[in-house]
């Protein structure tokens, strides 16, 4: 697999949520009320038994604590860093009801899982060989979660990854103050340590190997292809240097270097969480003027409140109800001409303004990749693969999870869906063995 | 303004807060600083033939992230020369004439008692405390709790001290006995002007589980020590109350054992203590804790219109009764305030696993406030104890129409009992 260079732009960042010391973890863990039928567990897509892992930290059983986490979520280390806990487990902590600061579940989970990594604790081994083989298409969080779980059942797994590095957006897309690429790569290796996972990087299914071929070579297929490149808005001037897709820019910064010298004015187009990440990252890279251009208003933005609050604190400035009309410059972008919109997002005639810009990041969403499976008869809606409650596609032996089917959610959703699909695949393969023809 | 003046068998101090005979009362320099902070008295760390101590000496019980809720030590009596101690007693008394200096003593022979008592009084002691309590080290040499566990020896040595002393004498009792009362009565028969209790409880504070040695570790071994700190308070309160309510016992008591703040002190006073002695909390937090103790006690006295300590010394003793005199027809049940409830449901699992299975989830899973089956609730308090929200669960008295009836009345007079709850 690709080795990451040392001098990546992302290494400029420190963790915005610092790791706990032993003492800090113990104090926080002891605050946990150890709720019954705990709301935090219900808020976690992977249903980690949070009160239990926290109690184990409190008693000094950190090894058991991490086991509790990983048994529910093999990506527990990255999720501890990247989960929007404010709207998941921490948001549902009963202490919120009491007006007491909620338990820092993410930081405790990081403490526990980091310790497991540092100590080299191993918890899982592959199940006895079943003779079945499964193709996992896509080496991102969903595919990794599925592959690991399939190995626990004893099925042979081959991961097909189009890129040269595993981990998907966990490696290429996470804001570096939450997690850097090398941590994701370490997690990938830790997951692969279960053994028996054949990884084929730089291998695009549909190009280097046909989709139908998978049916011939494998007993089941998991599709975790994620989502595609940044969308553009066909705005004039998008081809100028310095106008770049947000996800593309983040990946360049995380996997290598992006030359930020001379960038004084940066504009981020969009109001989702990718845009929020870009705002915080640009501020963190000491760009003096960082502006968000968003067609909606603060109430309608899809970015999380806590992310926008953080961006504001760092100095990011909004232009609500605004739309880029043209990126201007000769060869390289110099400014953005924008149209002001009314509250119904209709252009207000004659109300235009121009922002200076040395860098424009387009955070207006990513393309969906599901349509390439339509020729196989797979149901696709708005580019999204349609799955049933078990992660099954409407093609025998085919399953899916992660952004490809959920439309782009969190890493923790991908981890949950990958695991669910693995269980469904196992049930499918077991049934096929015991009662051939039944399915 | 309430008057905090305390009088324990003739030992008068400006307030009832004394340093117990222990490391915080080891030297004149320390005790003078304690007096500056506001302590009303100090029981000088036990004088006797100076000993040699071990290292380490202390151990602690930590629980739920809270350090040292229980504490123990294997330190012995003073290791400083007697003449140094007496010189510092003299200087301290001279500098702080209104504060009480009580000198704790522990020697073996009658002659030694006579000599050390005279020297203590000459140095300026306002009172003496006979250390009949130390449960480690000294008892192996026939002193400390070895005396306190033998009423006859206790009585005899007390009588010697009273004979030789011109100042009040307190006997400090050991809790390492089945029943404290005969020991308090023995000191009283010996002529003591009061007793102090409790001394520390014989204990092993913990075990080093990787090296297989009890704690505190001295090289490769350990020894039992004296348990103290907040965790021992219930034991101290019981022994204090047992003596206070005994009709034959009528000398003052200086209460000791897990006093950490003004509220604890009030509890001791309500069960019969005329003064309270503190060691562990000072070891953990410093002399400065006395400011809050004084303030809290004054405020408590104002709230209850108590002008002097005598207004409430022993005020809770009459309500300390035998189980057989408790009203079996008194009925209370738990009520949850749905507004205050945060939905942790800890009460539910406590009731299910540890009590009488009468707190259940709401039928509507969207509502996290549990439901109490009042027909099954026995009023045990467990839910209230585990609830993290103050005032959320209250125990409410139920009028069940039955007249009061105790077990004794039921057995002796046939008093009618209400039907049992939760006993199916």
Q: Helices and strands in order, then pairings?
A:
The complex is a heterodimer of chains A (about 450) and B (about 425).
Chain A: H1 22-31, H2 39-43, H3 50-58, H4 62-72, H5 76-82, H6 95-98, H7 105-119, E1 133-137, H8 141-153, E2 156-160, H9 169-172, H10 181-192, E3 197-200, H11 211-217, E4 220-223, E5 227-230, E6 243-245, H12 246-255, E7 265-269, H13 273-284, E8 289-293, H14 305-314, E9 317-319, E10 322-328, E11 335-341, E12 347-356, E13 359-362, E14 366-368, E15 380-381, E16 384-385, E17 398-400, H15 403-406, H16 411-434
Parallel strand pairs in A: 1-2, 1-4, 2-3, 4-17, 6-13, 7-8, 7-13, 8-9
Antiparallel strand pairs in A: 5-14, 10-11, 11-12, 15-16
Chain B: E1 6-8, E2 11-13, E3 17-19, H1 28-37, E4 41-47, E5 58-63, E6 66-73, H2 82-95, E7 100-105, H3 110-123, E8 127-131, H4 145-148, H5 151-164, E9 169-172, H6 181-189, E10 194-197, E11 201-203, E12 206-208, E13 213-215, E14 225-228, H7 233-244, E15 253-256, H8 262-270, E16 273-278, H9 280-285, H10 290-303, E17 331-336, H11 346-354, E18 359-360, E19 371-372, H12 382-386, E20 393-398, H13 407-413
Parallel strand pairs in B: 3-4, 3-16, 4-7, 7-8, 8-9, 9-10, 10-15, 15-16
Antiparallel strand pairs in B: 1-2, 5-6, 6-14, 11-14, 12-13, 17-20, 18-19
Helix pairs in contact in B: 1-2, 2-3, 3-5, 5-6, 8-10
């Amino acid at each position: 697999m690709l080795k990451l260079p040392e001098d990546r732009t992302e290494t400029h960042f420190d963790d915005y949520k610092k790791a706990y010391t032993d003492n800090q973890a113990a104090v926080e863990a002891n605050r946990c009320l150890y709720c019954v039928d705990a709301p935090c567990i219900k808020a976690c897509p992977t249903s980690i038994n949070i009160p239990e892992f926290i109690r184990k930290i409190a008693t000094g059983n950190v090894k058991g604590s991490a086991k509790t986490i990983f048994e529910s979520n093999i990506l527990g280390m990255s999720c501890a860093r990247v989960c929007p806990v404010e709207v998941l487990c921490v948001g549902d902590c009963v202490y919120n009801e009491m007006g007491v600061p909620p338990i820092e579940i993410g930081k405790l989970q990081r403490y526990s899982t980091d310790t497991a990594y540092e100590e080299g604790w191993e918890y899982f081994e592959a199940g006895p060989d079943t003779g079945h083989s499964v193709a996992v298409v896509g080496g991102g969080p969903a595919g990794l979660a599925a592959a690991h779980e399939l190995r626990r059942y004893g099925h042979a797994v081959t991961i097909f990854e189009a890129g040269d590095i595993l981990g998907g957006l966990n490696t290429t897309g996470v804001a570096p103050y939450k997690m850097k690429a090398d941590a994701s790569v370490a997690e990938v290796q830790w997951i692969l340590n279960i053994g028996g996972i054949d990884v084929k990087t730089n291998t695009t299914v549909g190009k280097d190997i046909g989709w139908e071929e998978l049916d011939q070579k494998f007993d089941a297929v998991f599709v975790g292809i994620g989502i595609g490149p940044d969308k553009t808005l066909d705005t004039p001037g998008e081809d100028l240097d310095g106008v770049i897709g947000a996800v593309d820019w983040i990946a360049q910064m995380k996997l290598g270097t992006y030359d930020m010298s001379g960038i004084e004015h940066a504009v981020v187009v969009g109001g989702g969480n990718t845009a929020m990440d870009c705002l915080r990252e640009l501020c963190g890279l000491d760009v003096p003027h960082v502006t968000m251009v968003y067609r909606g208003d603060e109430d309608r933005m899809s970015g999380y409140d806590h992310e926008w609050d953080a961006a504001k604190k760092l100095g990011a400035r909004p232009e609500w109800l605004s739309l880029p009309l043209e990126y201007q410059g000769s060869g390289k972008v110099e400014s953005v001409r924008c149209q002001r919109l009314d509250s119904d997002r209709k252009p207000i005639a004659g109300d235009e303004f121009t922002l200076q810009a040395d860098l424009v990041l387009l955070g207006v969403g990513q393309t969906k990749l599901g349509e390439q499976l339509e020729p196989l008869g797979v149901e696709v809606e708005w580019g999204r693969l349609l799955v049933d409650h078990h992660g099954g596609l409407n093609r025998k032996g085919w399953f899916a999870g992660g952004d490809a089917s959920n439309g782009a959610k969190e890493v923790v959703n991908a981890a949950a869906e990958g695991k669910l699909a693995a269980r469904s695949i196992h049930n499918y393969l077991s049934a096929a063995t015991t009662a051939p023809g039944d399915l | 303004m309430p008057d905090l003046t305390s009088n324990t068998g003739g030992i008068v101090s400006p307030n009832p807060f004394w340093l117990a005979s222990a490391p915080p009362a080891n030297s004149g320099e320390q005790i003078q600083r304690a007096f500056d902070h506001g302590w009303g008295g100090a029981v000088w760390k036990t004088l006797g033939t100076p000993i040699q101590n071990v290292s380490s000496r202390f151990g602690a019980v930590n629980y739920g992230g809270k350090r040292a809720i229980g504490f123990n030590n294997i330190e012995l009596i003073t290791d400083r020369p007697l003449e140094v101690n007496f010189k510092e007693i003299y200087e301290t008394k001279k500098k702080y004439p209104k504060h009480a200096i009580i000198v704790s003593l522990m020697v073996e022979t009658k002659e030694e008692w006579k000599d050390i008592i005279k020297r203590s009084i000459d140095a300026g002691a306002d009172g003496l405390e006979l250390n009949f309590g130390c449960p480690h080290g000294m008892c192996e040499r026939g002193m400390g709790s070895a005396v306190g566990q033998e009423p006859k020896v206790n009585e005899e040595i007390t009588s010697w001290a009273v004979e030789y002393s011109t100042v009040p004498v307190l006997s400090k009792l050991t809790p390492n006995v089945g029943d404290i009362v005969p020991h308090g009565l023995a000191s009283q028969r010996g002529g003591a002007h009061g007793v102090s209790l409790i001394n520390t409880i014989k204990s092993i504070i913990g075990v080093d589980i990787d090296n297989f040695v009890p704690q505190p570790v001295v090289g490769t071994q350990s020894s039992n020590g004296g348990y103290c700190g907040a965790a021992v308070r219930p034991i101290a309160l019981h022994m204090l109350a047992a003596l206070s309510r005994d009709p034959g016992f009528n000398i003052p008591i200086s209460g000791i054992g897990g006093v950490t703040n003004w509220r604890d002190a009030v509890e001791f006073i309500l069960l019969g203590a005329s003064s309270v002695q503190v060691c562990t909390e000072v070891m953990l937090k410093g002399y400065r804790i006395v400011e809050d103790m004084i303030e809290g006690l004054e405020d408590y006295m104002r709230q209850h219109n108590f002008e002097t300590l005598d207004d409430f010394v022993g005020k809770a003793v009459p309500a300390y009764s035998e189980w057989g005199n408790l009203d079996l027809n008194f009925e209370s049940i738990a009520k949850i305030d749905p507004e205050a409830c945060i939905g942790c449901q800890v009460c539910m699992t406590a009731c299910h696993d540890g009590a009488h299975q009468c707190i259940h989830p709401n039928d509507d899973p969207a509502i996290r406030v549990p439901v109490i089956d009042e027909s099954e609730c026995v009023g045990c308090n467990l839910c209230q104890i585990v609830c993290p929200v103050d005032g959320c669960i209250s125990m409410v008295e139920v009028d069940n129409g039955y007249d009061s009836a105790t077990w004794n009345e039921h057995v002796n007079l046939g008093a009618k009992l209400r039907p049992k709850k939760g006993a199916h």
